[in-house]
Amino acid sequence: MAGQCPALFRMPFSSLCPQGSTGFYVCIKKGAEVMSVKWKKRWGLLCLSLLLVLGAVGCAPSGGTEGRLNTPVKPAAVKYPVEVTDQAGNKVTIKQEPKRIVSLMPSNTEIAYALGLDQKMVGVTTNDDYPAAVKKLPKVGDFKINVEKVVSLKPDLVLANGANDKATLEQLKKLGIPVLVLDAKSFKDIYRSIAIIATATNTAREADLLIAKMQKEHRDIYAKVVNVPKDKRVKVFVELDPTLYTVGGDTFMNELVTTAGGVNVAAGLKGWPQVSAEQVVKWNPDIIISSYGSTDQILKRQGWSTVNAVKGKRVYVVDPNLTNRPGPRIFQGVKEMAEQFYPERFGEQK
């Protein structure tokens, strides 16, 4: 509808800066006392800069928004100690600017590097592979974290995830190590994750620019798929593994599919359900996305020869590091999907 801001770009100020706060996405305190009015105003400017960035992307005026995207309000520097509320609701005090950071999840690592914290990273997991520099860092485990190894690296900040073992995180906290839990389940949550890390590490300026870049990527994709009529949008089945686990309508992956202009055939389900082969045939998707790297067995699957995606050989593999990690590259993953859904709109031939 002309003149109306698309819902997928609306970022209400109240949802980014909590009620009663003029801070930067998260409630910040100086020591045990609430920040002074002067300090609140500084953080108000910082929050305003991000609001301008997000607002610029939401409803672009005819004159364009590139100037605003590239010239955000200069944020004030953090004054330590600060108290940050993470995505698990924990209030974490950061006594001084972190100099030694350990990440327990690849998405957190990617955010940290995108914020220019590469020289402060001292440990990551064996699952980390981007950027290439992380391969040289000490490893603290995979999904099972080695507490002793983490402690040996003498971190002054640990970037954890909601999927990490809670007992492990409690051990680290009891040892006096600040632990921030990031747990993004939506695009908006990714921006909050970036903001939380930036607040803790004094990289608000970098966060401003990173969020602006991501929002521009989002807007560019939207511009190419927004005019696809609802009855012409491709029906998509996401196959997580050969046993037919898929993605429900309340999942992060569903948001990727819909943002790329597709319709998730399993949107009526919740979570990560397992469905039958017969159900997929009944849904008759136009496209099947494989997130585990195989297309041949799907194309040759018995009983699926009548499925549109199989008949048209529109079974694709997406890079799971782009689509499964809630980090700075998420819209690269969305674009990859959108190019497969509507190649003609992206100048691609599939």
Automatic annotation (TrEMBL):
Keywords: Membrane, Signal, Transmembrane, Transmembrane helix. Belongs to the bacterial solute-binding protein 8 family. Residues 100-345 form the Fe/B12 periplasmic-binding domain. The chain crosses the membrane at residues 43-64. GO terms for biological process: cellular response to iron ion. This is Iron complex transport system substrate-binding protein. The keyword Transcription regulation does not apply. InterPro entries: ABC_Transporter_SBP, ABC_transptr_periplasmic_BD, Vit_B12_bind_prot. PROSITE patterns: FE_B12_PBP. It comes from Laceyella tengchongensis.
